[in-house]
Amino acid sequence: MRWFPALIVCAAALASGQQLTHRRAPSFSLPDSKFTQHDILDYRGRWLIVDFMKTNCPHCTALTATLEEVKTRLGSKLGILEIVVPPDSLATVAKYIAETKTTAPVVFDSGQVAAAYFNITPANQKPFDTPHWFLIDPGGMIVHEWNQASADSKDWVKQLDQFVAKK
To answer: How confident is the model over 61-99, as pLDDT tens digits?
Structure first.
């Protein structure tokens, strides 16, 4: 019996009290649509945004535009990885990349990476919302997370700038 559904996307992040921040970022290596592996360890030494998103989510599309602006402004100080889970496919991701013109890698997760980031276990199968993104510092620690409400307000960009300015 599979304990982890292939798609866990909807309401609020974790009500169990387990912290999603102030811990080492779970490591992973995931393929993009061209089957190139993207390893989180390749981003050590600079800031990284790990964005869990869906290609049919209007909030995710808006966030992608903002991420592109931030990436251009911060340059080599910041890396971005966008992660999709099923039912997104090669076709939906190709269409998303063409429409949004994102330059960030969009990588495919079957659910295990999402489970690690959201502390999902057999006893704790709470859903998470999209977009939902994590800021990882140059040392590999998750220092902050944002969710859909943050994407709509764009206040998160000011918070990001404050984090990057500290180090």
So the answer is: 999 999 999 999 999 999 999 999 989 999 999 999 999
Helix 58-74 to helix 155-166 angle, to the nearest 10 degrees?
30
List the one residue out of 92, 82, 86 whose CA is nearest residue 60.
Answer: 82
Domains of the chain (ranges, CATH numbers) = 45-166 (3.40.30.10)
Q: Give me the DSSP letters along 88-131.
A: --HHHHHHHHHHH---S-EEE--SHHHHHHTT-BTTB---B-SS
Close Cβ partners of 61 (under 8 Å, ≥ 6 residues apart): 96, 99, 100
Say which residue the tokens 């402004």 belong to: 73
CA distance 129 to 85: 12
What is the pTM (predicted TM-score) of this model? 0.86
Angstrom distance (rounded) from CA 145 to CA 136: 9
Quote the tokens at residue 38.
Answer: 């993207």
Average confidence score pLDDT of the chain: 87
Tell me the chain's radius of gyration from C-alpha atoms.
15
Provide the token pair at 74: 């911060």
pLDDT at 2 > cutoff 80: no
